[in-house]
Design a protein that fits this description.
This protein is an alpha/beta fold. Helices cover about 45% and strands about 15% of the residues. It has 15 helices and nine strands. The strands form two sheets. It has a seven-stranded mixed sheet, with helices on both faces. It has a two-stranded antiparallel sheet with strand order 7-8. It is globular and about 60 Å long.
Length: about 400
């Protein structure tokens, strides 16, 4: 069993000194789910609430987690929506209190893990959830009182199992980020066996989410060489294995590498993300039925080209370094080669050709741009986008 220490970093504005933090414990290997009781004991959890969704239950993965717990008393909340909502958080709080649970186990994709983080806040802090959102100045209000959380990812995409953040649609309809070191799971159990047989479409969409994390955090201007190295290695792993994992759900080597790349993307993205995520967060709030990873895949080409002229991108040769990790022979200064490689990969994976294929229409642009400019990822892009820039990126992604 491979056990590693997880890394993440947080930086002040770009002109400030960088701060680098190490966070959670990671267990990554086939069969790691068997370590769940030991991790509960280490985290002081005796009566966990398992947060999951109906798909994970139907696939039999929830049963495997329960079996691993042995006879440990537990309760289950399996009504996580595809995009976590404050209403679902409230429903989970009721289950948690009814069963007097003292900690959380999230079993699922990023939605279940993010919902559990929202629950960890709501069950121990007063007031509406938006009070604790990053753009509302709420991060310092999230305290050590949050419930302890163990994350067991069942997809390879979000990396939320090692991240300090969560994305939740609050009651007023905004899709907001919540960030605090107190939200980092006490343990991440990354068992690639739980992803064997994941449907091709979901494998592709979540895999492109991981690729977007690795690429966008590498382009972010904050100074953090360790994060850059982790992100580049994650990009190389994901880019070279995503097609195999999508084509053959039982490919164990591909599944291991995709799970590692997903985890690495989130270890690195504490450095910051950018316009890909400000757009996908906003559009996902406008239409919660749209998959976050798919949206990231649609926006990546346009954002890479928009970022190509940024001073930090040019100075650090970041396009060339990403191109090498992707196995491309060369990269032009405008980012066209990388953008075209991403579009080609999307097509080979069977993802939509653009936003129009997802039913997105231009009449949504103003609402999407409003949300993007208010998103916490907007200011960590290497170029600060204007409304006109966002219009151009949206049009190029249609």
């Amino acid at each position: 069993m491979c056990q590693t220490g997880s890394f993440a970093d947080f930086t002040n504005p770009v002109d400030a000194m960088a701060q680098i933090n190490y966070i959670t414990q990671i267990q990554i290997d086939f069969g790691a789910i068997k370590l769940l009781p030991a991790e509960c004991e280490r985290a002081g959890i005796r009566r966990p609430l398992i947060v999951t969704d109906v798909g994970v239950r139907a696939a039999g993965v929830l049963d495997r987690a329960i079996a691993a717990l042995g006879g440990m008393p537990h309760a289950v909340f399996d009504q996580t929506p595809s995009n976590p909502t404050e209403a679902a958080v409230r429903a989970a709080v009721e289950v948690l209190r009814a069963h007097q649970s003292d900690g959380l186990i999230a079993v699922g994709g990023g939605s279940s893990i993010d919902l559990a983080k929202g629950l960890a806040i709501a069950a121990t802090h007063d007031g509406a959830l938006k009070t604790y959102a990053t753009i509302e100045g709420g991060s310092p209000k999230i305290s050590e009182r949050v419930l302890p959380l163990i994350a067991v990812p069942t997809t390879a995409g979000t990396g939320s199992e090692v991240a300090r953040g969560a994305i939740v649609i609050v009651d007023d309809g905004r899709k907001l980020g919540f960030h605090s070191w107190h939200l980092v799971p006490k343990a991440a159990i990354c068992d690639p066996e739980l992803t064997l047989g994941l449907p091709p479409g979901l494998t592709a969409a979540t895999g492109m989410d991981a690729i977007a994390h690795c690429m966008e955090t590498f382009m972010a201007p904050a100074v953090n060489p360790p994060a850059d190295g982790i992100g580049l290695d994650g990009l190389e792993r994901a880019w070279s294995h995503i097609e195999r994992a999508t084509r053959d759900g039982q490919d164990r080597d591909a599944r291991w590498n995709m799970m590692s790349a997903s985890m690495q993307g989130a270890m690195a993205f504490q450095k910051g993300l950018g316009c890909v995520h400000s757009l996908s967060h906003s559009l996902g709030g406008v239409n919660p039925k749209l998959h976050h990873g798919t949206l990231n895949a649609m926006f990546l080409p346009a954002v890479v080209k928009f970022n190509a002229s940024a001073e930090s991108i040019v100075k650090e040769r970041r396009l060339d370094r990403m191109a090498r990790a992707m196995g491309l022979p060369s990269c032009d200064a405008a980012g066209n080669a990388i953008a075209e490689a991403i579009r080609s990969m999307n097509a080979r994976l069977g993802l939509p050709t653009g936003l129009a294929a997802l039913g997105v229409t231009q009449d949504l642009f103003e609402r999407v741009i409003d949300g993007a400019m208010a998103d916490h990822c907007h200011k960590t892009n290497p170029r600060l986008a204007t409304r006109a820039d966002y219009v151009a990126m949206l049009e190029a992604s249609m």
